[in-house]
Amino acid sequence: MQTRALRSLLKIAKVGSFLKASEQLNMTLSALSMQMKALEVELGVQLFDRSVRPPRLTPMGRAVVDKAEGVIACEDALRDLCVQDDDLVGHFRVGFVTSAAARLLPSFLKNTQASMRRATFAFETGLSKALQEKVLTGGLDAAVVTGTTGYVQGLREVELRREPFVFAAAARIAGGGLEGLMTHTPFFHFMPQTGIGQLIADAMPSNARPADAPTIVLDNLEAIMGCVKAGLGFTLLPAPDVRRYGAGDLVEFAAPGTIHRSLMLVTRTEDFAGRRLDLLTAQFDPQDAQALQKKRGIR
Question: How many structural domains compose the chain?
């Protein structure tokens, strides 16, 4: 018996829907249905009552789920036991917040291809909140997200790096300094509902900007930096993003206070711990990992 089918069964039991389970398992609905029918044939029992919609577990199905949890827990423990000190084994689904993927994903891929030959990875990008929800529900094994002040129950966080924010403007409109920009120049604001956007929204009131000063909200860092480079306004963003997209005649101003962006690796509390978490974290920039090793917060 393949434990993959048992893992799929547990996912269906957890989310209560074949459709949701298939999406989180990256399977088609028909493939998942066929997998469950094959499991029923192999076990010789009916796991689901298909006379109702959505299909629900039979009493025997619930009993199998209870036993399957123990089987999968033992398999995971065996895999952890057999993991070498310098190796990671298995298939992992990792998400990256879109605004940081271009900078972090290449080095992560390079490191894993060189040192984690028994591990395979699938990737996706998205907003921090959506990625956290996918980790919580099992759609992802881990994700790199923008850290916020909100604690998410069921997730553990490891800080990978901290990035200071800077104001940026084209030199030709920055002659009056940051104070001059604040009084009349259009401000390009990254989406307020995102992790970066929340940090920007929290920081701007402390900078004495008039309430009627123009603000333009965009959902793309490259578009914001394109407008800033064209002299159409100024922005406040993590310094690495300003420097990545803003090469040219730009002026940077330090953001008052201690505003910074924390990039966090988040995993489910019960699923990803010990050496497996250490090995995954080590695949990011080694300098960042060393600098923050003493500050690692596991919650």
Answer: 3
User: What's this model's pTM, rounded to 2 decimal places?
Assistant: 0.66
What CATH number corresponds to the domain at position 246? 3.40.190.10
296 DSSP assignment: -
Structure confidence by residue, pLDDT tens digits, 195-208: 888 888 888 876 67
Q: Which residue has the tokens 């300098």?
A: 287
* 24-58: pLDDT as tens digits: 887 788 889 999 999 999 999 999 999 988 899 99
d(CA 214, CA 17) in angstroms, rounded, equals 46
Identify any residues that bridge with 124 across adjacent strands, giving them in sequence order: 95
Characterise 292 by phi-psi region: left (phi > 0), alpha (psi -120 to 50), beta (else).
alpha
- Residue ending a domain, among 82, 103, 138, is 82
Which DSSP state fits 175? T
Q: What is the number of residues in the chain? A: 299
Q: At what angle do helices 274-281 and 59-82 cross, to 10 degrees?
A: 60
State whether residue 134 is helix, strand or coil: helix
Helix-helix angle 3-15:29-43, to 10 degrees = 120
Identify the bridge partners of residue 260 per DSSP, sorted by sequence position: 164
What residues make up the domain containing 224?
Answer: 163-259
Please spell the DSSP secondary structure of 255-279, one letter per residue. PSTT-EEEEEEEEETTTS-HHHHHH
Task: Give the HSE-up count for residue 147: Cα atoms under 13 Å, Cβ half-sphere.
Answer: 19
Confidence of residue 12 (pLDDT cuts 50, 70, 90): very high
Bridge partners of 217, per DSSP, are 189
